[in-house]
Amino acid sequence: MIWKVLSYPRYRLASLPTPMERASRLSRELGVNLLIKRDDVMELCLGGNKVRKLEFIVADALSKGCDVLITRGATHSNHVRLTAAAARKAGLEAYAVITPPGSTATQGNILLDKLLGARLVYVDRVEEADEEMARLAEELRSKGRRPYVIPVGGASELGVMGYALASLEILQQSLSYGVKPDYIVHATGTGATQAGLVLGLKMLRASDVKVIGISNGRKASELTPRLVKLFNSTARALDIDIEASEEDFTVYDEYSFGGYGAITSEVVDIMKYVARTEGIPLDPVYTAKAMYGLIDLVRRGAIKGGSTVVFIHTGGSPISFQYAAEVEKYL
Ligand SMILES: Cc1ncc(COP(=O)(O)O)c(C=O)c1O
Fold first, then answer.
1. The CATH classification of domain 50-154, taken from the options 3.30.1230.20, 3.30.70.260, 3.40.50.1240, 3.40.50.1100
2. Active site residues
3. pLDDT (mean) for 56-80
4. I need a labelling partner for 90 at 20 to 30 A (CA). Which of 235, 245, 248, 275 fits?
5. Which CATH architecture has domain 2-47+155-328?
6. What pLDDT score was predicted for residue 1?
């Protein structure tokens, strides 16, 4: 079944597989076999999980003859940065509707967005952003342009396909370490990463690998139906006969520390801990919170001692520079 995804048109933006490394020191301290999948290490503009989604999305935009990508995200959005970079790589332009939270100062991802020449349109309320994207698309169409609108976070069927393929990559790399993961843990937000992983594992008949999404803000009760919808619409788009229900998704929403974009001492403590044990930088909005969740779930026994855990580093390092003042408070 995974063949259906493999044979879908993709515009190559990164040479895959990304590295997967054994986190020996953290493994010893936590009492699990921890492997870190480095999706933050990719050649497209500092990398991240959005690149896998954009490979499918950009191919679709090009096949439809589009010449400009439009998307939206928070001020610190990795998705906006990577959409702008992917657009440039493919010879397209990018527009992005930027919403709170966060500072709009020229730092981190905003700095990179500007460097890439993305046209940024600021709105005050997240609720206005989809409407603003539609308005921009209409305006561009009236000028003879061919816009392609990408939903927030790349959370579309094509985005889900990116992480369905990643699950194959993760299983293959784990095999090279002589193991099969018991758990895959990652930051979850708009849902395409988690829906894709669960879909890919189902296609590979490896649903015994438990995927755990650590929410960066949304409540599990809001996110889970969204995951089911994304999964099922992607299965339909691929014309495969599998269906998911809410039981297929595990989401923990108690590790967002004050909500999306909030940075507390716990978050920075985890950033310091992982940097000082493994030399790996995490970001304060997504990956540090996900790692906090992983560590706490091991301590609580929800992730069993001695098990093999793959943590996906989904990227986001520019955010640390954007929020340097907030992070510095707890250094
Ligand atoms: C670094 C990082 N990790 C995780 C996520 C969440 O991924 P998804 O939107 O696919 O749930 C995002 C998306 O914004 C991200 O930028």
1. 3.40.50.1100
2. 77
3. 98
4. 235
5. 3-Layer(aba) Sandwich (3.40)
6. 85
